Amino acid sequence: MAHVVRGVAVRAEQEQFDRLAEGQLADRLMSIAESRSVRALGAACCSAITELTGSPTVGLYLLDGPEPALVYSRHVADGLLDNYKAGFWKHDPVLDCIMTRGCAVDGETVIGPQQWRHSPSFEMLHEWGFAYNMGGPLWCGRKIIGVLFTATTETGAPYTPRARLRMQMLCRAGSLALTNMMDTGELQAGRSPGSQPETAGMLSASLPPRSADVAIRVCRGQTNKEIAREMGISDQTVKEHVANLCRRFGVHNRTELAACLLSARQ
Fold it and tell me: Where is this region: Disordered (predicted)?
């Protein structure tokens, strides 16, 4: 009975988040968009994300090296961050989906409600007291230059479509802030010490495995159908990966993409 009561309370709390006043929502998004440093952006996201999505945690990564670089986190155990950095990011279905689709997604939806609690993603989150995770892309022009993650400890409250929509809005505001930082040169000051500007070679190394596999085959000159057949995926999935790679490297078509990737390997 206590479990049922707790579930009802959690759902009621989620409905309260869903009814967040438009004025309050706009204020939170503006505070993110007006950020002028990476640290300020992280703090603004942390302040807003609880009200926007019901999550208390923030993990802000920039894609400026051979692996995602953590530049801000709040309310996340160091052990979870260490596990992610140690290699889990290479097999993270949420990150892979963000990079492929270019939109906010949550782990349970990507993996499926029936499989979620048996997945490596859930096991890692559960070890550190979390139940569900969600993330979205941070853009600068046609490139995804960062990723924003959050997670919730509420076991009976998976992310709703409205929470994902609000995460998408939050990421759009964050993208505007990062674009302004790039324009003013402020972004470099917010990166981790010793980080270097992105190159195509470094970016390809930071891609999730499936996207990297598609990139290799594009360099070989294989068609979408050939790639799909060889990898055992659909033509549409290949198209999505290619489109994402074009956005990721700031090129307009697969010919430019292949040239960009090949030049980085020379």
Answer: 186-206
Residue 152's contacts (CB-CB under 8 Å, 6 or more residues apart) are: 53, 54, 55, 56, 57, 130, 131, 132, 133, 159
Residue 48 is encoded by which pair of tokens?
Answer: 């807003």
The distance from CA 107 to its chain's CA centroid, rounded to whole angstroms, is 11
Q: Do domains 2-190 and 200-265 have the same CATH topology?
A: no
| pLDDT of amino acid 120 | 94
The reply to whether the predicted model has a pTM over 0.90 is no
CB atoms within 10 A of CB 100: 19
Is pLDDT of 246 > 70?
yes
> Is 2-190 a CATH 3.30.450.40 domain?
yes
Domain boundaries, the chain: 2-190, 200-265
Instruction: Give me 9's structure tokens.
Output: 């309370």
CATH fold for the domain made of 200-265:
Arc Repressor Mutant, subunit A (1.10.10)
Are 257 and 220 contacting, i.e. CB atoms less than 8 angstroms apart?
no
User: Cβ neighbours of residue 175 under 8 Å, at least 6 residues apart?
Assistant: 137, 138, 139, 140
Residue in 66, 7, 35 with CA at minimum distance from that of residue 192 = 66
Whether residue 192 is predicted with pLDDT greater than 50 in this model: the reply is no
